[in-house]
Amino acid sequence: MTSSAGGFPRYAEGMGLWEHRGKVAVVGYGYSEIDRRWDGVSMDRTLGAFQLAAMQNAIEDAGLTAADIDGFMCSEAMAGDSWAQEDRGDPRPYFDPPYDSEDGLSLTSADWLIAGMAREGTPLSNLQYIDRNQLAIGQETGKAAQVVGDGQANVLLMTYNMGNVPGRYKLEEGDYSEGARKWSAPWGWMTSAMMQHAFVFMQYCTKYGGSHDDLAPFVLNQRRNGLLTPWGYYAQHEPYQITLEDYLTQRYICWPNGLLDSDRPVNHAFAMIFTTAERAKDMKQKPIYVLSHVQASHPTKSTMATLEDHEAFTDSLARRLYEGAGARPEDLDIFNPYDGFATFTQSYLEGFQWHGVKRGEAFDFYAGDIRVEGPHPFNSSGGNLGCGRTRTAMYTDSIEQLRGTAGARQVTVRAETAAMGQVTPGGNGHIFLSVHPQI
Amino acid sequence: MPKTIPVPDALDKPFWDAVNEKRLVLQFCTACEKLQYPIKADCVHCDVKGQLEWKEVEGKGHILETLVVHDTRVVRLKGDVPFNVAIISLDEDPDINFLANLPGTPVNEAPQGAAVEVVFEELEPGRFIHDWKVVE
Amino acid sequence: MEQRIPVTSSEDGAGEAGRRPVGLISFDIDGTLTTGHGPGPITREMVERAKEWGYIIGSCSDRPVGDQKNMWETWGIEVSFTVLKHMLDSVKSRFEADSYVHIGDTDVDYHFARVSGFDFLQVQTMDPEPWMLSPEDGQCHWGPEGRTR
Predict the structure, then answer these.
(1) Quick check: is A394 in a domain?
(2) Using omega within 30 degrees of 0 as the cis cutoff, is the peptide bond preceding A98 cis?
């Protein structure tokens, strides 16, 4: 059994067509239930329990058994703040095994998940490849496709979670700032990416015109799409549409970023199965081929990255993804870029030139018909803003759109290709899927 | 505004020592001739290592944009919301940017693009921090 | 500018001299009321009793106003105000009362109470108010989730 480090396979310019284009396929996906937070007592609704359910659902969706899986990939990074770190309440009272540590509660290790599958009678008994070091699902999906293309695994189960335990995010207490925080905290800069993107968004408005309120049609449509996603947080727990007045009167955390521009953390997990196109031929689901994938990791050269940086980053991302797939912008039918904060999604929309949108044109595009039943069904998943901070709604929607099983969200335009990814312009991974092995 | 107090380390001590003398001294890479801030072990612009020196800059800049913080995790600043957080580009090298609270400028009134100059605020006896103020 | 609404809890015809003090209570929802996400400790019965006792009641939450109204409709309680969290000061300008209290569970509640001239009661640590006590046994019966989160 080999265990691989999580390097990015495709981050460089000029790599051309992906060498495994059309030779790797997505043949299954699964997801868990969703909660705003784990309630601290329901052991069947922990992050770990949710993730095991997502993995089992993906295996079932693919028509496989756990014994068919020979590759496993996950991210062991903590999915949210741990209870022990939060700003009120006592340190977590741990529980009987397997919940006698943070593992399974605010993070999930590969060992915990593999042991959990065995405990539940669905052992991953034939693993030949394990990768536990993925950063986030954007990079993880590309790495999964690459591993199968390279022949390191034949049937790979990839899983990702986003967790949320009781309490608010931790506060930054004390009178002193050390390490990297000494360059930001004294002036009130929070650790969140929110302020970085609020700054770039302000530069965007200065350069191209428009204001925060021009995001309203996009944010309202994200919620609408989310309400059409039956498993999503809002559809499940707060099933109401927000209004323009709600948007315009929202509370600002850091102008120009308000509460409704920010995704809400949830407890949720997702899984996906990749295999070779050859193996996929006779499987339960019609294969969805991987045509390309790319990653990006750009250091910030001063205190803050700028609009110029983010435009260059997303131009590169789009150029490389299209190049790897042998595709052009007009070949991309379904586009589900990231929306953790509403203030940066236009970077991707314009960088990928989806439906012909060029730099500075996003607000006009948002003001048009972007509904799923319309001609420009942008971010048909509803993303994080519509489904909660799962980071995976973009993947479930893309697969469902290509399968034709998106239900009330099914677009009326052609749905043969899809691109999706995350997280930020500076640190990212995208993947290009298609119902055909090539464009 | 009660800024948190930066704790110098071996790498950035010369920067903070200069700030305590009310001077702004940045890193300068003699290989690629680029200024660097924040202080880091290696040049972020080129692959050449070990070529970083210290260079005093004039402390003139312009406001790129200004955000207004209404809610913060930094407990020491909670009592001061809402407050400005501006991003300042340095005139000597516009690729260098700083954060600023723009002392004296009310929130929502920061003039985008305005000229600013560095000021030094004493946080503890003898310990200063740099901020930026709109030039009248 | 909205007109400030004079409020009295005295019976009809009672003059100013016979006026009882009137209190206003603003409730946060999530983490404060049992209907919140996550559920807080203050029950529907407590809120209803506060209203019966003559308090001016309403909600002040980050939930959209429409959702706040839906929540109160579901609970079957008619309230005097439903405002966004950063608009708590508008409540004070709309209603004349002798005391203004906001009950919530976070430092954001505390902040907006402070800047809006309200007293703040943190729901996890507050002593039970008289209107929270059951008329049957004189005890405070917090919601099923308790006050631990």
Answers:
(1) no
(2) yes
Residues of B in contact with C86 (CB under 8 A): 70
Residue range B31-70, pLDDT digits in tens? 999 999 999 999 999 988 889 999 999 999 999 999 999 9
Residues in chain B closer than 8 A to A202 (CB atoms)? 65-67
Contact A259 C62 (CB under 8 A): yes
Above 80 in pLDDT, residue A91?
A: no
User: Across residues A269-283, what is the average pLDDT?
Assistant: 97
Q: Which residue of A has its CA nearest to B45?
A: A301
pTM (global) more than 0.90: yes
Residue A112 belongs to domain spanning: 24-169+265-280
| CB crowding A14-23: b at 16 or more within 10 Å, else e | eeeebebbbb
* Contact yes or no for B81 and C108 at CB 8 A: no
Would you call B65 and A203 a contact, using CB atoms and an 8 Å cutoff?
A: yes
pLDDT at position C18 = 54
CATH number for the domain that contains residue C79: 3.40.50.1000
pLDDT score at A78: 79
Query: Whole-angstrom Cα distance, residue A315 to residue A294?
Result: 12
Count other Cβ atoms within 10 Å, centred on residue B98.
25
Name every chain B residue with its beta carbon within 8 A of the beta carbon of C108.
Answer: 71
Residue C90 falls inside a structural domain: yes
Domain containing residue A61: CATH number: 3.40.47.10
Low pLDDT (below 50) residues in chain C: 1-3, 6-16
- The total domain count for chain A is 1
Model pLDDT for residues B22-32, shown as the tens digit of each residue = 999 999 999 99
Q: Do B87 and A180 touch (CB under 8 A)?
A: no
By the 8 A CB rule, do C25 and C118 touch?
Answer: no
User: Structural domain tally of chain C?
Assistant: 1
- Give the span between the Cα atoms of A160 and C11, in whole angstroms: 62
Does residue A184 come out as left (phi exceeding 0), alpha (psi in the -120 to 50 range) or beta?
alpha
Nearest-CA distance A126 → chain C (Å): 41
